[in-house]
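Wed. Picked up where I left off yesterday with HVA22-like protein. The coffee machine is broken again, so keeping this brief.
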Amino acid sequence: MDQLWIVLNHLQSLVGYASVRAIESPSSVDDEQWLAYWILYSFLTLTEMVAEPVLNWFPMWYHVKVAFMAWLVLPQFRGAAFVYERFVRQQIRKYSSGAAAGAGGRRKKSHPHAGDPRAY
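Structure written out below (tokens, as returned):
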């Protein structure tokens, strides 16, 4: 089992490399996939940290997690983009529109390139 985790950690490094390649490519389609992946990965990691005592009762949790992460990351499935489009984007729009209305609907850019991730 320890060898499996070593392999998975090396695969995580490949995900980082693929993310860098996506940022450097002219297409924004792969950017969306990898940004969605990292958003979902961080959310799953935080949830897992909080729910660890409960998850320890499910012996298949790590197998399910690996399968889910593979589905998210593999470009054939584009799982991360699918989950982001179907679930995350709706929640962000719902809560960000309420925040914008509460602020008078105005948003002020703090930097000339604010909102442009390629400017940095």
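Quick read: The chain has one domain: 2-97.
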